[in-house]
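During the no-cost extension, the postdoctoral fellow (Dr. R.K.) reprocessed legacy sequence entries with the updated structure-token encoder. One reprocessed record is reproduced below for audit purposes.
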Amino acid sequence: MNPQFIEGVAFETLKVIFIVSMPALMAALVVGLAVSILQATTQIQEMTLAYIPKMVAIYGTLILFSGFILDRLMNYTSGIFSDFTQFVR
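Re-encoded structure tokens follow.
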């Protein structure tokens, strides 16, 4: 096991984490921005107002993209297990 192999596995892991978490993070960003604009225009300064819409958006996004997320994680896991002999050398 050489350093290039470890770097490749680490890069692939980070890429999968980024791809899998991106839908939920983007939903939270969009909803948070919309709530912030709403709060700024109406001058409602309630700090807890953004939590419930963000949670609903994240849960909805995770339900909507669950097939995509599961497919990516299964492909990554099966790839790791198929190359398992390279890890134990």
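Residues 3-88 form one domain. Helices lie at 3-42, 51-64, 66-82, 84-88. The remaining legacy entries will be reprocessed before the final report is submitted.
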